[in-house]
Amino acid sequence: MSAKVWASMAADLILGKDVSEKIYADLRDRIARLKQNGIVPGLAVILVGDDPASQVYVGMKDKKCVELGINSYQHILPADTTQEELMAKIRELNADDRVSGILVQLPLPKHLDESAVIKAIDPDKDVDCFHPFNLGKMIIGEADLLPATPAGIHQMMVRSGIKIAGKHVVIVGRSNIVGKPLANILMQKDENADATVTVVHSRTANFSELTKMADILIVAIGKPRLITADMVKEGAVIIDVGTNRIDDPTAKNGKRLVGDVDFDSVKDKVSAITPVPGGVGPMTICMLMSNTVTAAERRLTK
Ligand code: NAP
Question: 62 and 74 in contact (C-beta within 8 Å)?
Fold first, then answer.
């Protein structure tokens, strides 16, 4: 686990950057092994339109691929791309042997059917792991690809020496990309999981009574600093998934990134906590790279 950073602070800081570096070291070895067998992993990213945040995310993924020696194929399509044009692009990438993984950057423009697009991706190349086939495999404990953010949170805890088995994990938020898959990963019959999981959401009664019972509290709601010290148990582990951009007149661009947890009030009460930024964030792209390498490794056995 990370060292205590400030003398006045009781909690350990769990830093995604440190954990992800260890995973990247393993990935470099796996990529080298693939290359010895004539296989270069390839990630194809489709971006429809010119949403600035999506452009930043796509750029980050491209940079990480290049750093690791993964081929990066970017397909930037105009905002008025039709459903059929997008489906045709996915069919083309499904059939392309150079492409191990396909990712469609979400959200898509409103006129496009996101669910149909996700289902059109070959499940073997579904490195975001949003396809119902891969989500089904995850539920029955047979997954080889896992959704990036939940898998990253799991790896972060395991590799930081946080014991999950037998613990009461409370997850705040039930989205398809974080809360629901994470609950499944942590309740699997596995010595690195085996948690008792409670999921709470906006319709939950006695919300803070439940968060106060958590040995491990994971928050993914998108509400800046909603979770305060009075809502957590003494000595709990806190994983803050939230990324909220708030106004901050003291910041250079007038904005600051904060989590869903009120870090300053909570840090003195808990045993470990992820900061925002620098906590969960770096794990998501790391697990995407890991899924891309896993997808490429399938060709070793084909
Ligand atoms: P989402 O799809 O908007 O889902 C939010 C969930 O939180 C919903 O289940 C909602 O309940 C619940 N919720 C909202 N307000 C609540 C409240 N006051 N009390 C209890 N539950 C509440 O969000 P998401 O995509 O999961 O993302 C959540 C946060 O994580 C966002 O800040 C996002 O930016 C961040 N995120 C970060 C990463 C990363 O890599 N670090 C990755 C993904 C997401 P209902 O279902 O009842 O509406």
Answer: yes
Q: Encode 161-223 in three state secondary structure.
A: CCCCCCCEEEEECCCCCCHHHHHHHHHCCCCCCCCEEEEECCCCCCHHHHHCCCCEEEECCCC
Q: Is 255 in the pocket of ligand 1 (CB under 6 A)?
A: no
Cα distance between residue 123 and residue 107, in whole Å = 20
Give the residue, by CA position, lying nearest to ligand 1 atom 5.
221
Its pTM stands at 0.95
Inter-CA distances, 276 with 107, 209, 261, 264, Å: 23, 25, 9, 11
What would the pLDDT profile of 186-196 be if each residue is shown by its tens digit? 999 999 999 99
Q: What is the pLDDT of residues 194-244, one digit of tens each?
A: 999 999 999 999 999 999 999 999 999 999 999 999 999 999 999 999 999
Domains of the chain listed by start with CATH number: 39-124 (3.40.50.10860), 147-282 (3.40.50.720)
Find the 178 Cα to ligand 1 centroid distance in Å.
8
Residue minimizing CA distance to atom 42 of ligand 1: 149
Measured in angstroms, how far is the CA atom of residue 148 from the centroid of ligand 1? 15
291: CA distance to ligand 1 center in Å? 23
